[in-house]
Specification:
- With 192 residues, the protein is mainly alpha-helical.
- The chain has one domain: Tetracycline Repressor, domain 2 (Orthogonal Bundle), CATH 1.10.357.
- The chain is 70% helix and 0% strand.
- It is built from nine helices and no strands.
- Helix 3 packs parallel to helix 7.
- It is globular.
- The termini are far apart.
């Protein structure tokens, strides 16, 4: 019976973290309260502290989950492309119109980056870990992997991708949004 309770509590905990990961990307860290997250998870506010020591602890797990989802998606895209086209495929998926519209399930860094400096250390630590994973993933699929400067190229690529996505989401002009995405892609993957 204890195992069943533990499994049930774990499943409930995961439901809360999933709801929080969606909520923070949709409304920001400060735009979503514990009551909202618990309601989205189908639970009452009173059960929150059975799962988390604090709101910041929950936000750290949500940031980690949201960041992990982005890395897993990019890994999946890379795995389905021929090795020499994996980097291009990841960049195209990241800078796609679909990703621009998928704020609630898309890249947490693009959705929350400007809020990170004001978050608790554990929230920033979780986000930083996932950003580093994304940089490493891009670096491993770069043609210059293992060469001097490869890591710096990955830093520039991820910075460009995230910046382009933030701007493409920010504007209310579809043509400008598309131009931002396409220009970043053209810059990152020039055709020789």
């Amino acid at each position: 019976m204890t195992k069943a309770i533990t499994k049930s509590k774990e499943a409930t905990h995961n439901r809360i973290v999933d709801a929080a990961a969606r909520a923070i990307r949709r409304s920001g860290y400060n735009g979503t309260g514990v009551a909202d997250i618990m309601r989205d998870a189908g639970l009452t506010h009173g059960g929150f502290y059975a799962h988390f020591a604090s709101r910041d602890a929950m936000l750290a797990e949500a940031a980690d989950r949201a960041g992990s989802e982005a890395v897993v998606l990019m890994e999946r895209v890379a795995a389905t492309a021929p090795p020499q086209q994996a980097l291009q495929a990841m960049m195209q998926a990241y800078l796609s119109e679909e990703h621009v519209k998928s704020i609630e399930t898309g890249c947490a860094t693009a959705a929350l980056g400007s809020e990170m400096p004001r978050q608790a250390p554990e929230v920033r630590r979780a986000a930083t870990r996932r950003i580093k994973e994304m940089i490493d993933l891009i670096a491993r699929h770069s043609p210059d992997w293992g060469q001097p400067g490869a890591h710096e190229h990955a830093l520039v690529a991820v910075s460009t991708m995230v910046g382009a996505l933030v701007l493409a989401r920010a504007v209310d002009d579809a043509r400008l949004s598309n131009a931002l995405r396409n220009s970043a892609l053209d810059h990152l993957t020039p055709t020789d």
